[in-house]
# Entry
Amino acid sequence: MRWSATTLAVLILGTAGAGYLYYQHLNGNIQKGERSSGDSKANRTEPNADGQTPLNILLIGSDSRKSDANVALGGSRDHRDNPPLGDVQMLIHLSADRESAAVVSIPRDTRVDIPACKDPDTGEAYAATNRIINESLSRGGAGCTLATWENLTGVYIDHWMTIDFAGVVSMADAIGGVEVCVRQNVWDRPLPGVSGGSQLKLEAGRTKVEGEQALQWLRTRHAWGSDPLRARAQHMYMNSMIRTLKDQNVFTDGGRLTKLAEAATESLTVSEEIGTVKKLYDLGMQLKTVPTDRITMTTMPTVQDPKNVNHLLPAGDDAEKMWAMLRDDVPFDDNGTKGEGSKNEDAKTDGSKTDARQTAGADKGTGDPAAAKDEIGVLVSNATRTAALGPVAGRASTIAEALVAKGYTRAGKDTSPAVAEERTVVRYPSAELAGDAQAVAKSLGIPVSSVKKSTDASGVTVVVGADWRTGTAYPKQASPEAGDLPSNSDAINGSDTGQCMDVYQPYRW
# Structure
């Protein structure tokens, strides 16, 4: 018995030691980077009535060729020194109550404002520019892409993850095959006058793809007909992958979990605040709780760029409606409890209640009372420019004059160069000006949820965004309801197993 007890103790200690060493090995695999390396003004979402906050993760697929494996898998471009582009970009939104999830893709050729960024590795600074979104990765890394998304959407993004070609293959192998579907035989290959191609070759019907074939599926564009349709194919793959992982009970199968952990830690680069196995595991457990019928995959609504037929632009009100749903944590699906929307106070679907909260908002929410109107200094900035349209001339002066007429005699326009903001916001630099900022917002009809503390402001600053191009009263924004997505968002529910891709005629065989 003594011998058995001693042997058992040695085995327990040895196993624990091996487990610790393996845990350290996995942690050592993980590459990390700075969360944000760009000029971003997005603020964290306020907790709902239950103290919960949503979780937003930006997933970036890089076309880097910095390794032999990536050169072999990437094709066409074999220059390792070329800066990587973020050809796949998806925002994963997990609701505050962890009962629903949404994924939004932005096509790589969408022209957006990329903010000033600084590469955290080289220290190189990049000026703000207006280019297609996949270039943001080459102008300061994933942290610059995150800042670009935050400025476009107004959504605070908690973390980012990047993966390259070799990483996709490794993860696909670890999963062990994901079912995809095409309605016709497909072969994505070079054609006369059209170079490139993923080399995906499948017969019509359902096929399990893994390894390099999974990468080919995710990279295919020509055979589907467009980049937004490539996003649809990627969403089908992700939905199928989630269903596969749930069927495998991967979180309760030690062997499967170990294989996935090894692949994930070797394949992913993540923002530094989630750069441990435990934190990644915790993220996975939070995502695991969402039922497949509460997962919605979408693509940002777009229109053709008038400056370049090969580029796209966000589709105005439709794109903004989607971002508003994310900011207010409104589910993309309507499969929850009847009448469910956001639990956040400013996202209820009763318009009259929302208006009442907005007008009353300046009287609560801070312990700082507002000063007399004629004592409050207000700067008004014209940020009405968009990727498609120039700024509206005179907007700062118009709103400043409206404030003066309301008694804010110290209001004036900002004469610095025009910036660009999708949404109107009132910023203030410190707590003692919070009440003043809320009072100014109330006078203009701007909701209290759009009053933000920011170190970018030297005083109370009204930033007139692209959502307020006319008039002197802020236009009331309709509160979206659960499942009320724009019709052009190409939404796919995670439980829909009947999805199948049509193949563009020239790529059938």
Summary: The chain has two domains: 27-338+493-507, 350-464. The first strand starts at residue 31 and ends at 33. The chain is about 30% helix and 20% strand.
